[in-house]
Automatic annotation (TrEMBL), chain A:
Signal peptide (from-to): 1-23
Name listed for the protein in its UniProt record: Membrane lipoprotein TmpC
Membrane topology: Lipid-anchor
Pfam families tied to this protein: Bmp
Family assignment from sequence similarity: Belongs to the BMP lipoprotein family.
Record carries keyword Membrane: yes
GO annotations of cellular component type: plasma membrane
Record keywords, A-Z: Cell membrane, Lipoprotein, Membrane, Signal
Principal place of residence: membrane
Subcellular location: Cell membrane
Gene: tmpC_2
Keyword match Signal: yes
Organism expressing this protein natively: Boseongicola aestuarii
Residue span, ABC transporter substrate-binding protein PnrA-like domain: 29-317
TrEMBL record, chain B:
Protein name: L-arabinose transporter permease protein
InterPro entries documented for this protein: ABC_transp_permease
GO cellular component term, pick one: plasma membrane
Signal peptide annotation: none
Membrane topology: Multi-pass membrane protein
Main location: membrane
A Pfam family recorded for this sequence: BPD_transp_2
Keyword Oxidoreductase annotated: no
Species, as recorded: Boseongicola aestuarii
Length: 331, 325
């Protein structure tokens, strides 16, 4: 092989790899981390499914600090990744600034609405899913008191709490809901010790079911609930398997579907506002062999009936984020 | 607030206070010998990870505890090398240890367990894989025997062994520091290392000893977090407790008994923040939990500003000892 051929070959390889790089989607995980057994992990699973089905590859980065948000976004956009998918409300303001600088790149943001022509905003009706698990808690509780433990105190988490409280009251009008937030900083997503203590505090107030919407902190909540012999409810991913027989159910938020769809559409990503609710299976409750023994047929029948009513519009679940107030719960 | 609620909050306070107390006493030994240590947080985190990981791998929490102490000691030795042998800046070394621990724990956890930087739940590894709570003798019978019995059953009984060890560490620390020759020299080395050197005692040796004791105590703090309070390691699970312990150390004016009260107070404030309902019933106004969470820091600032007494750190603290001057 002459030198010329080598050079030509090398440049051909370069051209090829450059060609694939432009079509490669990217995924940015929020501070909770890729394997949080919850929200970010669901996103990863969606991307993984896309990669397995299409044989494609995707780029990814896990943020470790707030300061990296803009940096990561710009780097992926500069590198030609398309679409760039990101998980988490916290990207909202950063993406709003970055998106206009890269008009040819499509972005997809989950859990936040960003009004830019090249951005797809995917939001979930968490209040609907939380309503259903709230109903299950209301039907299951024996003490008449159920708990909610949120991560960082942000409107999104209050939306979970509010939907849950409405569900509890709908199924059991006399029930009391205790709601606590772990903290007001991002550290609140990774403090299982405090989550466990909050669970014990709620148990001493009479709670016999706790719903954790708290990322890594939720691991501590579920653990404490299993240790103390009460029921817990997982969130985002199916967490039933973590403590079989103690985790009553999990509120599924199909972040994986959202990521999968965004990546499947590739560069032709449909931008704009995208709502994933009960109607299009964006949220739901988890049933598997780990919790079938503790969920009764009667309970399921009522939950499915309520789900039908919500889908048909016969019943409305109040969304905390629509007016920053909750009819069923005081914060 | 009824008496039972008060006891429940106190019970939570004790569990919150113990990791602070271990870390605070660790800092006490180190700083009394003149080595500032803001790496308490990182050492706790490393100990939390290694105790949980080894407990998961061996199914024996005591081996886990030893591994946690070992990891914490290793970081202590690094801190010692940097700040005693090589006379580096103690604060920078401490910050480096915090970063090192935060990154290393997640990295190793991912390599060993493939669960995204956490360990599996220790409850899957049999009853000996974590510190279980101990019910003291007659606790159940004492439940109905008046208020004192209730205190015994609710507050004193039902903690894991490390809690009782933690409380024992306070008199032990006091005895070592204020009633032994070693303690006298250790304190002297933090005040005036040149005098100790002149007396023919090794400054470097004493400081290394102090830093090693600091490692042991931090190791217990971390092990309690991951194998006593929780059943496994989650990334960043120390959540700033090392820094609150430093605040408690200043609040306690570098004294062991004061450290106990400071940690209990800080633990109690944290526990109160978890029970807004009880607080509201007590004071009739709604106090935001954030205020209670912030109080340890506010109190520390108040103490530092000299409003309530005066906190004077060991005089030679933060300065490497240079013999040949």
């Amino acid at each position: 092989m002459t030198l010329m051929q080598k050079l030509l070959g090398a440049s051909a390889v370069l051209a090829l790899s450059a060609g694939t790089a432009t079509a490669e989607p990217a995924l940015i995980f929020d501070l909770g981390g890729k394997f949080d057994k919850s929200f970010n992990e669901a996103a990863f699973n969606g991307a993984q499914r896309w990669a397995e089905e299409t044989g494609g590859t995707f780029r990814e980065i896990e943020l470790t600090s707030e300061a990296q948000r803009e940096q990561a976004l710009r780097r992926f956009a500069e590198a030609g990744a398309n679409p760039v998918v990101m998980t988490g409300f916290a990207f909202g303001s950063v993406l709003d600034e970055v998106a206009p600088d890269y008009p040819d790149t499509k972005f997809a943001i989950i859990d936040m609405v960003v009004d830019q022509p090249n951005v797809r905003s995917v939001v979930f009706n968490e209040h609907e899913g939380s309503f259903l698990v709230g109903m299950m808690a209301g039907l299951k509780t024996e003490s008449g008191t159920v708990g909610f433990i949120g991560g960082m105190d942000i409107p999104l988490i209050r939306k979970f709490a509010c939907g849950y409280a409405q569900g509890v009251v709908a199924a059991n009008p006399d029930a009391t809901v205790i709601a606590n937030m772990t903290g007001t900083t991002p550290a609140a997503w990774n403090d299982p010790v405090k989550g466990g203590e909050l669970t014990k505090a709620q148990i001493s107030q009479g709670a016999d079911i706790v719903y954790a919407a708290a990322g890594g902190t939720g691991v501590g909540v579920l653990q404490a609930a299993a240790d103390e012999g009460i029921f817990s409810i997982g969130v985002d991913s199916n967490q039933n398997y973590l403590h079989p027989g103690s985790v009553l159910t999990s509120m599924l938020k199909r972040v994986d579907v959202a990521v999968y769809e965004a990546m499947s559409q590739g560069t032709d990503l449909e931008t704009g506002f995208n709502v994933m609710g009960l109607a299009n299976y964006g949220v739901g409750v988890a049933l598997d062999e780990n919790n079938e023994a503790i969920v009764s047929y009667d309970m399921l029948a009522q939950v499915y009936a309520a789900a039908d009513k919500i889908v048909s519009g016969e019943m409305m679940v109040h969304d905390y984020m629509s007016d920053d107030s909750c009819p069923a719960l005081e914060f | 607030m009824d008496f039972l609620t008060f006891l429940q909050i106190s019970d939570t306070a004790v569990r919150f206070a113990i990791p602070l107390l271990f870390a605070c006493l660790a800092g006490l030994f180190s700083e009394r010998a003149g080595i500032f240590d803001i790496g308490l947080e990182g050492k706790m985190l490393a100990a939390a990870f290694f105790s949980a990981a080894i407990a998961a791998l061996t199914g024996n929490v005591w081996i886990g505890l030893l591994a946690g102490i070992g990891a914490s000691m290793a970081l202590s030795i690094i801190h010692g090398l940097a700040s005693i042998t090589f006379r580096g800046n103690q604060l920078i070394s401490g910050v480096a240890i915090n970063f090192l621990a935060a990154g290393l724990t997640v990295l190793i956890a991912q390599d060993w367990f493939r669960q995204g930087g956490r360990t599996p739940s220790l409850s899957d590894f049999g009853p000996n894989a974590r510190f279980n709570s101990i019910t003291l003798p007659y606790a159940d019978q004492m439940q109905d025997a008046g208020p004192l019995g209730l205190v015994y059953a609710e507050l004193i009984s039902g903690h894991s062994i490390l809690v009782y060890v933690g409380f024992l560490m306070v008199p032990l620390t006091w005895y070592i520091l204020f009633r032994t020759r070693f303690g006298l020299r250790l304190r002297a080395v933090g005040e005036n290392p040149a005098a100790v050197d002149t007396a023919g005692v090794s400054v470097v040796g004493l400081r290394y000893a102090a830093v090693a004791i600091c490692g042991i105590l931090c190791g217990m703090a971390g092990a309690y977090l991951a194998t006593g309070l929780q059943a496994g390691f989650v990334k960043d699970m120390s959540s700033g407790r090392g820094f609150i312990a430093l605040a408690a150390l200043i609040f306690a004016k570098w004294r062991p008994w004061y450290a106990l009260w400071a940690c209990l107070l800080f633990g109690f404030l944290q526990a109160m923040a978890l029970r807004p309902d009880a607080v509201e019933r007590l004071v009739q106004i709604d106090i935001p939990g954030q205020l209670l969470d912030a109080l340890p820091y506010i109190l520390t600032v108040v103490i530092l500003a000299g409003f309530v007494g005066k906190a004077i750190p060991p005089r030679a603290g933060g300065e490497p000892y240079v013999k040949e001057r």
